[in-house]
Structures are given as structure tokens and as C-alpha cells.
Structure prediction request, 218 residues.
Amino acid sequence: MADKAKPGKAANKTPPKSPGDPAKEKSAKRLSLESEGTNEGAAAPELSALEEAFRKFAIHGDTRATGKEMHGKNWSKLCKDCQVIDGKNVTITDVDIVFSKIKGKSCRTITFEQFKEALEELSKKRFKDKSNEEAIQEIHKLIEGKAPIISGVTKAISSPTVSRLTDTSKFTGSHKERFDPSGKGKGKAGRVDLVDESGYVPGYKHAGTYDHKVQGGK
Prediction:
């Protein structure tokens, strides 16, 4: 009986695997897959800049977007910002028609592969005088390396009318009472009639000098 128990004790002494080992194995697999994906992407370097532009436009205005799919609104913005729409050969209507044609019936977005198909459709209209391959290359050049154009904050336009309306020195009536001579607002004092409890008549030039005179006389 003692001989049979010994092997069991020896088996219990075998140290268990570190709980971190499975995580390391998963991370190693993920890295290997990513490296394989990088190698596959390196096979078509001319599309890397195009895909980068696709992702930038795909996430524009949507914090939850992953960059893998693009909505119709962002597709239209891409075609407009990258000058795919020229107003002659390609219009906003053409862009919308192609998007509806490429995307699935129940889908609202397109993938990068569908994006390239849509560009191929538009390239035929945008560059009519070129071959299919040349037209695709030209339309890719319009988009590669581009990013969404963000509209800046509207700047204030200085004009005589605006200056007159914002010049506090020309205000009259109750509006004038809301600002001091420097143009700074008085706050509540400019909106509400505050009771003067100093004992002096409003506007008296020597207000606050009585105590000094009395003390001086003593």
C-alpha cells in the first residue's frame, strides 16, 4: 500500500502550469496572425494609402466607427473632398446611385472591397478618355493619402454695422447703464436698481467725505 501511495505524492509535487501561459500563447498567435496580415498587405503597397484614406473617412464624425465600414454620408464626403465629383462627368447623384448599387439591399454601409468596386464604377465616368486600368489608377490617386476636410470655425466679419451695434459707448437708455465707461458690463448693478443706503444724494460729488470732515474738526 505504501509503494502505491508514493507515485501519487510524486504526481502531486508536479508544479501546475502558470496561469499566464494561455494568455501568452494567445498573444503569440495574435501577433503571428497580424504579421501574416501585414505581409499580405505588403503585397499590394499601392493600395495601402487608399485603405488609409478609406478608414479616415469611415470614422469621420462617428466615435463608435471601427474604420472597416463606411456610411453613405461619409462616402459622399470622400468623393466631394477628394474631387471625385467634378460636377460634369461625376455628380453627387452619380455618387449616390453607385453607393446604392454596390451596398447590400439590407445594408447601410460598404466595406473596403465594396469601396474599391464603387471607385471602379465611378472611374469609368470620371476618366472617360482613359482605359479601365488607367482610370482606376487616376481615381485612386485622387483619394490616396487624403483625409476629411474639417470646416473651420466661422470668423467674425468686421463691418461698420457690426461695430456700431457692439460699441457700448454709443448705447443709450437702459442699455447704456449696463456698461461702465470702459465697456465692461456692470453685472447685476447694471440690470437692477440697487438702493443707495449711504445717506448721500445720488450723484453728490463729495459723497463719503462727511466722516473725514467730522473727525478732522475734532
